[in-house]
Design brief:
The complex is a heterodimer of chains A (about 180) and B (about 325). Chain A is of the alpha+beta class. Helices cover about 35% and strands about 10% of the residues of chain A. In chain A, helix 4 runs antiparallel to helix 5 (about 150-185). The longest helix of chain A has about 30 residues, at about 150-185. With about 325 residues, chain B is α+β, with helices and mostly antiparallel strands. In chain B, a hairpin with a 4-residue loop joins strand 6 and strand 7 (about 120). Classes of the chains: A alpha+beta (about 180), B alpha+beta (about 325). Strand 2 (about 20-25) of chain A pairs antiparallel with strand 5 (about 50-55) of chain B.
């Protein structure tokens, strides 16, 4: 939905005529920028560089990763760099920038929550603690969330899982030794 | 790339949200327990930020922690002095009134506009946070984009702000819009089994309230197992977009309550059996007043959850988001 004009009518703070809420609007110069027209690649003339994927179209840039010429339709700009669709699709080199990621799995959260949530129904810790330990080990080197600075969740998951495994081992040993004593 | 935290953090029980600043863009992070979703707003592209005051009754994990602390203090101090119940009640009322006031009168929603998108920022939901956020961000955007001319309001009269409405026809040469994803369903066989296990558990508890046998107990265990399996299937189906969020929330609630009741039941059984290392005598347990009350509570909760499940399953699929 576009921004309703009434919100800008009062400049800074406007009141909604239907619900009465006070809206504070911070507008910036991008509001005046002309809408970019749809990308139309221009035909290449004789002697001009042509797009690698569209030989009849004029090249406007070269891919920063592989050096192929790209037309306006094919050029993908991110920051100060231009990439071709093939490099972006393949995640090649610098085209595999974190800038393009839209989601990440949080294996550290998964590993931490497993041994904790299973405490709600403690027999499940018998499965959940080893599972968390394996997950922590296997996923240790995988990338964390973009804004997570360290792996403390993995460390906590390993410590909690080891504690639960130790408690189970002690319990089982205690029960078995009691049985042996009774048998003698 | 290094990110700096911006004001505002939504800490929910199921999902959270936060905003981070990079040299050239804002990163909006939505945390869904085991997954983070990212959205970037480049400083050069931001057209407007709109903060609208409106009630937001959000229960954060911080509010949950305060509630738990209050409960812990109440339990610890209940029989220590005669004035404790009055003071704790007054504290509870004050906390509730404060939460209500902040939620009703000091809350807002925040939207950010670019030429191609309009997005809510869920982490900005209190007015003081919105002020801090704008105070920090406005100078940075102005540094990148410059300052608006004095006649900007007139110049945008015939210009759409933000993304164009979806109904608008595409410009010549525009690409075909992607087909809409199929709508999630309000019920599946897995959710039906889950709801049936809740109602079955409630019926079993009600009908066998005074006739506790090992058979009844094992049937109850089997129903609990079906309930857990059904809840797991519901999580998977919701994750795949097959099932709506309402049934998933019901499954989460049912699992948490099942876990809590399981522990309370174990404690009561331990008290009734005097810590003897043997399986509880169910006939003796049935006569234990606390245990009987627990079974009534359990049956009541299962019934309510089951009825909520039936209501969720019967909601027409076009009526819910």
């Amino acid at each position: 939905m576009p921004l309703p004009k009434w919100e800008l009518g009062a400049g800074d703070v406007a009141t909604c005529t239907s619900c009465g809420s006070a809206n504070r609007v911070a507008a910036f110069p991008a509001i005046l920028a002309p809408h970019s027209a749809p990308a139309h690649a221009e035909a290449a003339l004789d002697g001009e560089a042509a797009c690698y994927d569209h030989p009849s179209k004029r090249a406007v840039a070269a891919c920063h990763q592989c050096g192929r010429f790209v037309c306006r339709l094919c050029s993908i700009d991110s920051g100060n760099e231009t990439w071709c669709p093939s490099c972006v699709a393949a995640g090649a080199g610098r085209a595999q920038s974190a800038n393009l990621e839209t989601s990440r799995m949080l294996y550290d959260s998964m590993a931490l929550i497993l041994p904790l949530i299973s405490l709600l129904f403690y027999p499940l810790t018998l499965i959940a603690a080893p599972a968390s330990l394996v997950l922590s080990t296997v996923a240790w080197s995988r990338p964390l969330g973009l804004v997570r600075p360290n792996r403390w969740r993995f460390v906590a998951a390993i410590l909690i899982s080891l504690t639960e495994i130790c408690l189970w081992t002690l319990g089982i040993v205690y029960l078995l030794s009691g049985r042996f004593r009774e048998a003698r | 790339m290094s990110y700096r935290k911006l004001p505002g953090h939504r800490r929910g029980f199921l999902y959270g949200a936060s905003l981070w600043l990079a040299p050239d863009h804002i990163l909006a992070v939505k945390s869904l327990r085991f997954r983070e979703e990212y959205q970037r707003f480049y400083l050069r592209d931001i057209q407007a930020i709109v903060v609208a005051t409106r009630p937001r009754f959000h229960l954060s994990t911080r509010a949950g922690a305060i509630g738990a602390l209050w409960l812990a203090v109440l339990i610890a101090a209940l029989n220590r002095a005669p004035w404790v119940p009055a003071v704790m009640s007054a504290a509870a009322i004050a906390l509730l009134l404060a939460w209500f006031y902040v939620s009703y009168a000091r809350s807002c929603s925040c939207r950010i506009y670019t030429a191609v998108s309009r997005a809510e920022l869920p982490s900005i939901y209190r007015t003081w946070t919105a002020r801090q956020f704008l105070a920090e961000l406005e100078p940075l955007i102005r540094q990148v984009q410059g300052v608006l001319p004095a006649d900007w309001a007139e110049r945008i009269e015939d210009r759409p702000i933000g993304p164009r409405p979806k109904a608008a026809p595409l410009a010549a040469g525009g690409s075909v819009a992607p087909a809409a994803a199929p709508a999630a369903r309000s019920r599946t066989p897995a959710s039906d089994i889950f709801v049936a296990s809740l109602l079955g558990g409630a019926a079993l508890q009600f009908f066998a309230l005074h006739s506790m046998t090992r058979m009844v107990e094992w049937t109850w265990y089997a129903l609990a197992f079906i309930e857990i399996a059904g809840a797991v299937a519901i999580f998977v189906q919701h994750h795949r977009g097959i099932l709506r969020a309402g049934m998933q929330r019901l499954a989460i609630t049912a699992l948490i309550l099942t876990g809590v009741l399981y522990y309370v039941r174990q404690i009561l059984a331990g008290v009734a059996m005097g810590n003897r290392p043997a399986l509880p005598d169910f006939a003796m347990l049935a006569t234990f007043p606390g245990y009987l009350m627990l079974r009534q509570v359990n049956a009541g909760i299962s019934l309510v959850l089951g009825l909520v499940g039936v209501a969720l399953a019967l909601i027409p699929e076009s009526d819910t988001p």
